[in-house]
Structure formats: C-alpha cells, structure tokens
Amino acid sequence: MPITLSSDAQSDPNAPVSATRRVYEALRDRILTGYLAPGQRLKVDLLKEMLGTGASPIREALSLLTSDQLVDRLDQRGFRVSPVSVGQFNEILMLRCALESMALSQSIAAADQAWEESLVLAHHRLTRTPRDDVPVFEAHHKTFHMSLLAACVSPILLKFCDQLYDLNIRYRYLAGQSGGYAARDVASEHAAILHAAVDRDTQKATDELIQHYRRTGEFLSARLARL
Amino acid sequence: MPITLSSDAQSDPNAPVSATRRVYEALRDRILTGYLAPGQRLKVDLLKEMLGTGASPIREALSLLTSDQLVDRLDQRGFRVSPVSVGQFNEILMLRCALESMALSQSIAAADQAWEESLVLAHHRLTRTPRDDVPVFEAHHKTFHMSLLAACVSPILLKFCDQLYDLNIRYRYLAGQSGGYAARDVASEHAAILHAAVDRDTQKATDELIQHYRRTGEFLSARLARL
DNA sequence: GGAACAAAGAAAATCGAAATCATCCAGCCA
DNA sequence: TGGCTGGATGATTTCGATTTTCTTTGTTCC
C-alpha cells in the first residue's frame, strides 16, 4: 500500500466522485512516491485489478497523466511511467527558479490581506507537522509553496508551477526522504521566505526562494548521483 | 468542414494511427480555428456522429485536450470548449514573451549548423507561402517559430512554448484572419528575427521576437475589443 | 404565488466483450 | 549460418450496451 499524498480537495465532499478522478489521483500518488517506478509499463489489465475498476476510467486517467508528464503514451503500445534523468531534474530546477520567481513577484504585487493570512496559516501548519509524517508534511509543504504564489493573477503560470512542483517531488522521493531534510535547516529557509513575502519585499522573497531551491537541488543532486 | 492545420507529422506515415490520435487532432484543429466555439458544450454523442467513432476515443482525446487547456472537464457533466477572455489573451502574451525569450536564448547558446539550416529553410518556406492559403501558412508559421527554439535543450520548456503558441492561435482566428497580417509588415519582422538568430545575436533576437509578439498583441487586442 | 419535491427524460460514465495490433518464435529460403 | 516470412499469442484499442448521474418539467404543499 503506497503512501497517499491526499491532494486536490473536492469542493463538495459528499458529491459523487467519478472513477476517473479516483484512479487519476491514486495513480498520481503512486507515481510521485515511486511506488510505480519510472519506466515501468502500465498494463491496463493489471491496473484494473489493482484499482478495482474498468478499462475506461483507467485509460482516461492515464491520458490525463500524460499531459502532466508523469506518464508516456506509446501509441498502440500502451502506457508507461515517464522515465527520470539527471538532465530532467536540472531542467525542472531551472524552470522552477524562473517561473516561480515570476509568479511570486506577481503574487506579492497583487497581495492582499486574505493572501497574507492564508500564507501565514500555511506556514504555521507546516512548522507544526513532524517531518516523519510524510503524507501530511508533503501536503502542507506543497500548500505553503503554492500559497506563496496564490495571489498571482496568471492561472496558466500557476498551473505550470504546480506541474513542475509535482515533477520535482518524484525526485525527492527517489532520493529517499530520510535524512534529506534533517541535514539542512529547511525550516529557517521557509521562515525567511515567509517573512520577506509578508513584508512585500519582492527582491528578497524571490532571492530566498531561489536559494531554497538551489540548495535543495544541490543536495538532491548529490544523492541522485549515487543511485 | 473546418480548415485543417495539418500538424504533428507521424514518424511512420503508413503506420496504423489510433482513433484516439485522429480524434485528438481533429478536435484540436476545430477548436483552434474556432469551428468549435469557446464555451460550447462537447456532447460525446454528437462528436461520435461527427467523427464516426465510438465514445472511448472521443473521451480519451477530450482528456488529452483538457491538459492542453483547450477543453474543460466538468466532472460528471461532460466537456466544453475552454472559454476565452481578454485577460487570458494578455496572460498568454506575457508568458510567451517570458518563456520564448528563455528558450530562444538557450537555443542560440546551443546552436549548431543543422539548427541554423533548418531555421533558414523554415523561414524560406514561410516567405514563399501566400497568406491566403491559411492552413499551409499557419503550419509554416508555427514551424518557423518553433525552429527558432528547437536547439533549446529543455523539452519541458519547449512543450510549454508549444502549448502557449496553440492557445494564442485561437485568438488569432477569433479576431479574424483577413487584414490582420496585411496591415503590418510581418515579413520583415520575421526576417529581422531570423538574421539576429543566424548571427547568434541573442539580445537582438529576443528583443525582436518580443517586439514581434507585442505588436501582434496590440493589433489583436484592438480587434478583440470590438467583438 | 412561491418553494420544495418528485418523476421523466437526456446525457455522462462505466463495464464487458470483440476487434485490432505488436511481439515473439519457429520454419524456410538464400 | 544469417536473415526473412508467417502464424500464434498476448496486449491494446475500440465498440455497443448498461448503469449512474444530472437536468428539466410538472406537481403538491405551505
């Protein structure tokens, strides 16, 4: 049983959720956490049994994951988990620095009180979650980073950032969670970003954010090189 | 019968192409050209009849188009063509300037002779195509712009640029093709970009490219405001 | 008269089976 | 011996039908 990342809250909790959505989220979790390994073939029959549903929702969910770059569609030859590479890891790092800088600047420029308060809240929850409660910690971590950008008025840019965040998470799981964060003072990096954002200091906030990503990137690179 | 944009050449021309891919390309053309109007509901039964195929390929193609931001999936209530707005048009313009600058810089930095030659070829074909042969002109126009970026070593960035290009095209069709290009000397703008790129003048090339987009953007904005 | 409710109709989502396609291996020919 | 053709097998893709869900309309009750 893979760990779940519990994402994308439904607007109406008791609304009937489609099988496609359930399968989509289940498969995404399994791919991000590495339970489904990079490069692994995704046979529809096996997934049917694994998830207890028919072929149609499976294929639709796989199609959705294709454009998230988490699944490759091999025309007429099925699906597979997208492979990973050091090159792609560096590419994601570069793009996150570039795009999240833009998004954060725009977010701070359009900031209001509600944004500021939800950001503080997200940070508080992050600090209060032990790192070893991986699913909850990861959920709060993503919420914090996305809250930083949330006031940005560019939905497409936000979608790109969200996608890149998810792509990056795979590499964090691949490198192994244990010891990864403990070795650095990540909490103070988060706090520095938070304070700069709350102070509306665009330059400092984007600098701290990029430094945060670069440090994590160097750390993960070293670990990934050993795989 | 909508105009076709004839995209995405198959690697093997006589390979059996899946119904899903056919439907995907057909629907994408119809959405980009405006044959399927923004906001219009996409009933699977109607599309089945229109494209002469079953529900599964239709739904899969619609799922793929969802992540291209050309189709909205309304959970349990079907699909619709993504709506358009002036705000989104400006957002796309902003993002294209930012992302294509990055991609073009990287492309020129990694440029080799093969890239340069395919770029010259793409430009030549563009200049030799009359503007009123819309499908061919549009295909060559996209090929030229993508050729500029083609040496960029960041596939994800290229995918984002490609997606934004397609999103933008919708607005060009919406504003109406006739008179749009004739009113400006677009050909010389393309030539300026080409020469700067061939000269490996990164600064000039990105400047010209951004100016090209901004001028087109202003022109289209004026026309879209009248709709 | 208005609102809540219920039933009928339409549409979407899903399932199970049939058709299509790729792969693999044996047999054959050069 | 090496390469090619041709069928058998397993997987993918697709279709037709069923089930579930949403929407609309008509009704009843305040």
Written overview of the protein:
The structure is a homodimer of 227-residue chains. Chain A has helices at residues 19-32, 44-51, 55-67, 86-109, 113-127, 134-149, 155-175, 186-198, 202-225; strands spanning 41-42, 71-73, 79-81. In chain A, α8 (186-198) runs antiparallel to α9. The longest helix of chain A has 24 residues, at 86-109. The radius of gyration of chain A is 18 Å and the shape is globular. Chain A folds into two domains: 9-81, Winged helix-like DNA-binding domain superfamily/Winged helix DNA-binding domain (Arc Repressor Mutant, subunit A); 86-226, Four Helix Bundle (Hemerythrin (Met), subunit A) (Up-down Bundle). Chain A has 227 residues and is mainly alpha-helical. Chain A starts with 18 loop residues before the first helix and ends with a helix. Chains A and B meet through α3, α4 and α7 of A and α3, α4 and α7 of B. The structure holds a DNA duplex (30 and 30 nucleotides).
